Amino acid sequence: MILNKRMKAVKRKKQNLVTHSNPESIISDQFRTIRANIKFTTGESDNLILLFTSPGKNEGKSTAITNLAVSLSQQKEKVLLIDANLRKPAIHHIFKKSESPGLTDILKGDKKFSEAVCSSGVGQLDILTSGSITTNPAEVLGNGLMTALLDKAGKVYDKVLIDSPPILHSTETRVLANQCSGVVLVLRRGKTQIEQAADARRVLELSQADLTGIIMNEK
């Protein structure tokens, strides 16, 4: 299912949170459409855990997930945004937060969940940044502690959104995809090749992940 076929790409960092800074804009309205389409696709269930990925790099994935997270919080939903892209984290930049403590610090046992999660300053949206740098992201995210963390987060929040590395470039995304309620694949018109999109879908199917929908960015 195409969640939104013509979402304009937001190019400059200061515009990344357009759903917060300019909620009446056309882009914000497009994210409201995506929000509604996800609701129609997944039903009325709370405690939804969605993984966002893309076939390759620079396809607008982090921009899409952060704006959707803000849009969901504007509906008075309690939302947690997790940066699981340990190879190239971006969430802390967008929200101007410290990278650590964060996800890796919890998984290594250095911090508790409550110590690492912080408020975004936008509605009921909390964020869990990537955390301290690690040289083995696949091993860190592929253990049982990550499963336990997602289980806990799913009980505390209405929606949990996970920003992950490109599916064709990382093993950990395939592992995480299998643990989530669904996966949203972000593509960019004019950049994502048809073969890449097909390969990404095939990998998700092999991972036994549920493809919730696709967001198509305009170039």
Give structural notes.
There is one protein chain. The chain is of the alpha/beta class and 219 residues long. The protein has a single domain (45-217), classed as Rossmann fold, CATH 3.40.50. 39% of the residues lie in helices and 21% in strands. The protein is built from ten helices and eight strands. Strands 1-8-7-2-6-3-5-4 form an eight-stranded mixed beta sheet, with helices on both faces. Helix 2 packs across helix 3. The radius of gyration is 16 Å and the shape is globular. The model is unreliable at 8-15 (pLDDT under 50).
Distance between the termini: 20 Å
Domain count: the total is 1
Structural class: alpha/beta
State the order of secondary-structure elements, H for helix, E for strand: EHHEHEHHHEEHHEHEHE
Q: Which parts are unreliable, with pLDDT below 50 for 5 consecutive residues or more?
A: 8-15
Largest sheet composition: 8 strands, mixed
Helical segment tally? 10
Which architecture name does CATH use? 3-Layer(aba) Sandwich
- For the record, the CATH class is Alpha Beta
What is the fourth-level CATH superfamily?
P-loop containing nucleotide triphosphate hydrolases
In spatial order, strands of the major sheet run: 1-8-7-2-6-3-5-4
Task: Tell me the strand percentage band.
Answer: 15-25%
CATH topology: Rossmann fold
InterPro entries: AAA_dom, Bact_polysacc_biosynth/exp, P-loop_NTPase, Wzc-like_C
Organism: Lentibacillus persicus
Protein name: non-specific protein-tyrosine kinase
Domain AAA: 60-177
